[in-house]
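Cont'd.
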Amino acid sequence: MAKFNMRPDRNEMPTQDPKVRAHNFSEVALGYTEEQAVDEALRCLGCKNMPCKDGCPVNIRIPEFIAKIKECDFEGAYEIISSTSALPAVCGRVCPQERQCESKCVRGIKGESVGIGRLERFVADWHNAHASSAVPVPASNGHKVAVVGSGPSGLTCAGDLARLGYKVTVFEALHTAGGVLVYGIPEFRLPKAIVKREVDNLKALGVEIMTNIIIGKTLTVDELFERGFEAVYIASGAGLPSFMGIPGESYKGVYSANEFLTRSNLMKAYLDNPDTPIMKGGTVAVVGGGNVAMDAARTALRLGAEKVYIVYRRSLEELPARREEVEHAVEEGVELMLLTSPVEIFGYENKDTPRDPRCGFVTGMRCQKMRLGEPDERGRRRPELIEGSEFDIPVDTVIMAIGTTPNPLIKNTTDGLAVNSRGGIIVDDGGKTSRDAVYAGGDAVTGAATVISAMGAGKVAAAAIDEYLKTK
Amino acid sequence: MYKIVEKKILNPTVTEMKIEAPLVAAKAEPGQFIILRVDEEGERIPLTVAGYDRTAGWVKIIFQAVGSTTEKLAHLEAGEAIQDFAGPLGVPTELDGLSRVLIVGGGVGCAIALPIAEKLHEMGAAVTSVIGFRSRELVILEDEFRAASDELFVMTDDGSYGREGNVCVPITELFDSGEKFDKVITIGPLVMMKFVVAAVRPSGTPCDVSMNPIMIDGTGMCGGCRLTLVKDGKRVTKFACVDGPDFNGYEVDFDEAISRSNMYRDFERKKHEQTCNLFGKGAK
């Protein structure tokens, strides 16, 4: 066997044919075979200073796990990944690796970087398919910690603390654990069975998950302390969806991406004869350019839309979504309407027959062309309206995927919890809030961000909580 | 799972249930709501709290079988259980400082108005209640309202019971005769609430309405329950689940709310029919 594989390009990820997958909800990417994984692993030069590890928000020892793949010790690779990541099968699928670990890979200088994310996914899937489920439950240290929210941040924090011997209870407001991994990210990108397995792995570690409990309503943070919890980690996630504030956003057929995706994912409106309704078919415009916008667009397509547009005010280069998601969306037939911004949504009106059942439903959208001006404070070129460039497109559904603001329920019911002007909880470097023994992280702190950054925050907070309870 | 402790049929389409949910019962206040799912594949629906017993640990819900989910729920019996029951959600109805209140309930909305009337009565406020129904066989909770009210008007659209006419008839009479109230609180179908607001408006009395729009999560995540308030000529979007469900009736854009409420009417009708066929009875 050659010591290294010096091919400049990486092993391609096998995927479902775009024409087929645009009409089903099965996973798009099919994963590497063992041969492909080993071949790809051989592209890794095993840099001693591990630049890729620094690019990972949870600092996975990447060259070390890849070295294990080279030896075909896949379980050994899993042990290395899972020692720092609570959700390997999830991260391998949804992390923006091209901006994190892979962006630091020296192979990327002359050619393509090592497919780190693809290898991580391979290892996690191999483990899930082959390993025995018996996980030793860590010895208890007698301390109780409450985690609010069972999304990526909460699960990571819970997993890290459980491994240290804490008795962790996770409180989830919805009826299923997983947070954005179940209500937001669609089945075709992250199968729900994978999320369930990751949650089950945590339960096997002794983590208790209580669904249908809304912290801030059913119980308050203060009541958690009364119930014997010694620290609380708030990872309640994204809250109220943002709308543009343009006329017509209340017409029937205008959804927030959160609502559209929740109906399809969590409530399974994509199945035949579901209990939860959703608008399907016709022409759909998704406003926004992030991963959530891509998810909504591709979901709409799979639900039977004839035409799906992504309407984004900047250009292709600035699209914040993962490159792979944009490519997949375009391959499936989603049309990118770039440098375009909606100014009004039209709905059907009939003054003579107000009971006409079509009344109030979306019929179209007025857009305006944009051009990129000077860079803003974050270095992104600011989009500017081009006067007189208005044009109308007929649409049946508009999905607003332009972000969220943090959920107000906990802030409103927790005295002394400091929040910033946008409603995000203020924390220090260790995730500690203005309240003693209360920590926070993820979207509840930052506003809408990525799965992996939320996991990173969960990790940091778990370490800080451990430190705090050890020295208390 | 959440056990059904007790079930009572109030009229041919309206059912009352007490659900074992101690954590929700410990916190619930009049005006708040819960979200439930009947079974594993079920949809999430919001229902307003119709009563609670903090010691016994149950929450009372009263609902009309109008769709698939409520039809399925109505077919469950005491001793059986439902999949999910989460709450209490929303902001409790603001009752502090009120000494003379007019409560207006319509149809199954009376179930939600009752705990408010009861709490005000308990607080020592003078309560006048107007409850309206389509006809005699749909009248619910009359005795309970009588016990919680200093004065009660029972109205039916067809005059088959109580007085003939809609709830606005006695409201207008009361205000015309010079009666004064600190506040009017109305709960019922959107169209009824719209007309109640119009009937109260000339008196300038504050008038709160309880909105019950389409919801999914109920915790401020999806925005499906949004409605528009018109404040000083400016349109403001609010989320019923976290900002409400009670709003100042003078500010609510009722026409928009009515339009949004029927977004899935065809789907719901078909689904209800399907469920009814499943139980071997025709949809009403």
